[in-house]
Write a structure and sequence with these properties.
By secondary structure, the protein is an alpha/beta fold. It contains eight helices and seven strands; from the N terminus they run βαβαβαβαβααβααβ. It has a seven-stranded parallel beta sheet, with helices on both faces. It is globular and about 50 Å long.
Length: 251
């Protein structure tokens, strides 16, 4: 198993990509701590799936945009685990609007959760990673929107671009402590946001994707597993696009 007895903290892992990463890590021997914001029933369902894999699991309700909330979670974790080895900053949201119609609340909410939440979790848990057996690992969830931008997503694109810069700068700072920091930039991934989309919108998106299919949460989780493992032991400060080749369409 690639992550045997490692302890992984994953934010926003009660569903979607975060859940898939949690399950993939557990299948490969990791014990899982995960944050969720609201849906306790969904979170406990995910926890049960992890327990069935024979791994320890600790779900905690946390608002990553609130520094105090994340700090309180650290104290809870310390009562159950000696430390963490892997941090996956996955929690995020979007509130789309054309820029001329975007409210200050829409801007602030997305930046505070996506970018500031990544800062909060990394800042609070970086000391735990310093003590990790064999070196720590941070994986940040960016997006192709942070690379290319996207209409109606100036707030989301800015937050994800910020995560990319954060990843590269932090990688330089903590490399001497044997901590690797990388990011994943998913493209169009099949999650709940695709439910109910008109066929013509989906077809338009697929035309831009070289592999001619929408990605899955498993596609992203597989890359996260690689980055968290010793197979990526000489990789840091990188952004891995998981987009089916959509970036090729700009050439």
């Amino acid at each position: 198993m690639m992550l045997m007895n490692k302890v992984a903290l994953i934010t926003g892992a009660s569903r979607g990509i975060g859940k898939e990463i949690a399950l993939k890590f557990a299948q490969n021997g990791a014990h899982i701590i995960f944050f969720y914001k609201n849906n306790a029933a969904l979170a406990h369902g995910t926890a049960k799936e992890i327990q069935k894999l024979g791994r320890k699991v600790l779900p905690i309700q946390v608002d990553v945009s609130d520094y105090a909330s994340v700090s309180e979670a650290r104290e809870i974790i310390r009562r159950h685990f000696d430390g963490i080895d892997i941090l996956v900053n996955n929690a995020g949201l979007f509130q789309d609007s054309l820029f001329v119609n975007m409210s200050q609340e829409q801007w602030n909410t997305v930046i505070h959760v996506n970018l500031t939440g990544t800062f909060h979790c990394t800042r609070i848990f970086v000391d735990e990673l310093f003590q990790s057996r064999g070196g720590g690992c941070v994986i940040n969830m960016a997006s192709i929107a942070g690379i290319y931008g996207n209409i109606g997503q100036t707030n989301y694109s800015a937050s994800k671009s910020g995560i990319i810069g954060f990843t590269k700068a932090l990688a330089k700072e903590v490399a001497s402590k044997n901590i690797r920091v990388n990011a994943i930039a998913p493209g169009f991934i099949e999650t709940g946001i695709w439910d109910g989309l008109p066929d013509h919108i989906l077809e338009k998106a697929l035309k831009k994707i070289a592999l001619k299919r929408v990605g899955t949460a498993a596609d992203v989780a597989n890359v996260a597993l690689f980055l968290a493992s010793d197979y990526a032991g000489y990789i840091t400060g990188q952004v891995i696009d998981v987009d089916g080749g959509i970036g090729l369409s700009v050439l």
